[in-house]
Amino acid sequence: MILIIVSLALLTLLGILAWQEVRYRRTRRIHAQDLQQTFHPRDAFHVIVFFKLAKGEKLLPTVRRFVDLARAGSEARLIYAGQAAFTINSNQMEPRDWDGVLLLQYPSRESYQHSCEDYRASAARGLFADSYYHAMRRNRRFGARVPRYMLTLRLRDILKGNWRVAPFRSSTEFQTFPELQAWRDRVSRLTALHEVNRSGLVVINLLKLPSPGGQEAIEAAGHGLLSRIAALGHGPLHVGRAVAIEKLARFDRVFIVSYPSARYYAAMLSSQFYASVTGFRHPGDAIRVATVPVTAQI
């Protein structure tokens, strides 16, 4: 009898783990439109391309031409393409309002550097009015563990009695405080961009870690946000060590996270919940770009 109970418990556990894996992969591929392989090569080198379109240019045709040139001149693989809703700029750089972000994977850093010598790399970059390249050494072990990590967070919340995810409640301060006008503008752009893709949003974060006290604040806010998206089946897509490849700005970590939609993210930013976990104060220095996925259209 005990053996039967143990066997059923193990089968149930395996079923839950399998369901979580399938749910997470579906979110990554269909909603976030992220084409990352789970077990990519150890030396894989990821390059994040922030870009600004030239006046009169359209995003999708320009990005298609860029990707075609990048592939022709190297072994680059397109992992993700997103149209930007808004940009939060780093204090280390001049303000930029990026139109979109691309994530490319190269077999190695040497492969990327070799591709930069090809004339097609210059031609590709010349398609944009402005661009900024930053790289990442992606933590593939953590990437493989993300579904189980998110499941663990969810199970802990359930054991604490947090069975349901409370709906967002609009923040009166968000709607009225003059100092939050920039955030209200971001929410407006998110709402408008929801029609481009109604089922996904991806936020790219390049973060320079603050003092230990600031790191604790980041972890506390991050836990509150992750608890919600763990319940909804979304979460981290990429976590890695930031690698500078141009200019003087320096960052420590790269976090790329998916959310259910631009409309969901807009509701979150204007909610009492977001004000309580962040207070609209983000310790450290960062580039943050909220994007809607357009990879499937490239």
Structural summary, described in words:
Helix 2 (59-72) packs antiparallel against helix 4 (119-125). The protein has 10 helices and 8 strands. Strands 1-3-2-8-5-7-6-4 form an 8-stranded antiparallel barrel, surrounded by 5 helices. By secondary structure, the chain is an alpha+beta fold. 45% of the residues lie in helices and 24% in strands. It is globular and about 70 Å long. It starts with a helix and ends in a 5-residue tail after the last strand.
Number of helices: 10
Poorly predicted residue ranges:
none
Write down the overall mean pLDDT: 86
Q: Going across the major beta sheet, what is the strand order?
A: 1-3-2-8-5-7-6-4
The largest sheet, given as strand count, sense and whether it forms a barrel, is: 8 strands, antiparallel, barrel
Helix percentage:
40-55%
Structural class of the secondary structure composition?
A: alpha+beta
Q: How large is the radius of gyration?
A: 20 Å
Q: List the helices and strands in order.
A: HEHEEHHEHHHEHEEHHE
List the helices and strands and how they pair.
Layout: H1 2-31, E1 45-53, H2 59-72, E2 77-88, E3 100-106, H3 109-116, H4 119-125, E4 128-138, H5 140-159, H6 172-176, H7 181-193, E5 201-208, H8 212-232, E6 236-244, E7 253-259, H9 262-269, H10 272-278, E8 285-293
Antiparallel strand pairs: 1-3, 1-4, 2-3, 2-8, 4-6, 5-7, 5-8, 6-7
Index terms:
298 residues; 45% helix; 24% strand; alpha+beta
